[in-house]
Amino acid sequence: MPKNTISLLIVILILPFSKSYGQYLISGHIDGKEKNATVYLSLLRYDEESLISDSQVLFSTKTDSLGYFRFQGQLLSQKDKIYRIHTNASDTNGLQLVSDIDKSNYHNFIFSNTDTIFFKKTKDHWFIRSKNTNTSDTEWRKLKLFEEQLVSEYTNTKNKEAKRQTVNDFSEKLKSYSKDSIESSLVRLLAFSRIKTNNFDLKTDFDNNPQFYDNLLESLKADYTQKSYYLQYKDELSKITNEIVLQKYKRHRALNYVLGFLVLLLAFLSLLLFKRLKVALPKNIKSKDLNSTLTNQEEKIAKLICDNHTNKEIAQILFISLSTVKTHVRNLYGKFNVTNRKEFIEKFKNQP
Asked: 57-62 and 68-73 as β-strands: parallel, antiparallel, unpaired?
């Protein structure tokens, strides 16, 4: 078999595997004066743009005499993730992040196992000019430019209330831009990270407008299944919802305390009013015209009692039986709430 045919077969066999697994390439230059400087490649969480630690580092390499470095392989994720390229002027200083106008020693970017990024050589700066094939990274750069425009609009705000409104406006515009102009779920997650770190009242906004946050969760779930950024964001939302539930519970508990206090106060006032009415009740009865409740016969017998006539004498005077007189006397005692003749006479004479 001809050598050309064999080579063609090898290419045909290798090509599907190369597409399946992909191969990344990260390369570029830093200042040529920094010979044999260590360059680090790190994997970041979505909220670690300005955080640096040894645990983030994936690989490291040394620059050559011209300041050139290179990372290449198939070991990165097929999904878009956030990486950092980073170096120090001196290894003795350990891992440090320097970001200013004059000099920056790192660059964060979105990348996958099938992408390439090249950092062009600059005279005094490191990692400033780069060319990345990842489309999500392009969206992230546009998001950063949009943020910078918003920040420039609000820099002169000094009033406290105006600053609070500025934070709300910034966050709402960032949410709107994220929803309308960004396709990548990871870049929308990075927009959320900026909102979160901007003193925005996330709990209230999530409670009132959960759709933005829920849509982002579903988008991350579709892109990252049950892993990495999806789980990080889900955990973030769980903290927010737990705080909302706890806040509502405290508010309801405080309301229950207030209502309980009001119930006890009303019960106390009712008891106090009842006692006053109970004390005033005999006076009301005493002043009531009981004579108006007496029958003609009872009134005659009452007057005869007051004239000190006995029951027998009353029976003779009114031409009724003694037992009838006794019955009327018992009824009179009951109406006047007395038990003997003396009490009855005193109470009857005091009536109007």
From this structure: unpaired
The overall pTM is greater than 0.85: no
Distance CA 350, CA 352 (A): 7
What whole-number distance in Å separates Cα of residue 38 and Cα of residue 109? 19
The two tokens of residue 56 are 């983030």
Mean pLDDT by 10 residues, the chain (352 residues): 48 43 85 77 90 90 88 92 85 70 81 93 78 95 90 70 81 90 94 84 85 91 88 88 72 77 84 71 48 81 89 87 89 89 86 69
Instruction: Decide: 121 and 29 in contact? Cβ < 8 Å.
Output: yes
**Domain end position, chosen among 102, 133, 164:** 133
Q: Is residue 209 part of a domain?
A: yes
Structurally, the chain folds into a number of domains equal to: 3
Q: Say if CB 43 and CB 81 are below 8 A apart.
A: yes
Among 117, 133, 149, residue at a domain's last position: 133
The domain containing residue 300 runs over which residues?
A: 290-349
Q: Which residue type does 59 have?
A: F
CA angle, residues 302, 303, 305, in degrees to nearest 5: 65
